[in-house]
């Protein structure tokens, strides 16, 4: 059964979470520290300093993005579980209602 607000079912939510995790795989172990460490090879202390700052900024940005995105994937898995559980409760409640079909 699809959720009218989301327009998806619990399986689609789980697949979305899995797709997010797969998209994040290339960021595992992402590090610009080694590149920043080679900045002295520029020969220009100003350029080296700017490059180190650039690497630190993008390293931090990548980590923040990765953590936030992983959090969103976790949220989708949680939503999927809640959706499935709620759907089951609604189905159980609907099945427990007795109707008088003879009248």
Please render the helix and strand layout as text.
Blueprint lengths: L9 H15 L8 H5 L7 H52 L7
The string of secondary-structure elements, in order, is: HHH
Mean pLDDT over the full residue set: 80
Given the C-alpha coordinates, what overall shape results? rod-shaped
Any idea what the radius of gyration is? 25 Å
Number of helices: 3
Report how far apart the termini are: 30 Å
Percentage of residues in strands: under 5%
Secondary-structure-based class equals mainly alpha
Biggest β-sheet, characterized? none
State the helicity in percent bands.
55-70%
- Could you list the spans in which at least 5 consecutive residues all have pLDDT below 50? none
Count of strand segments: 0
Q: In terms of quaternary structure, what is this?
A: single chain
Could you say how many structural domains there are in total? 1
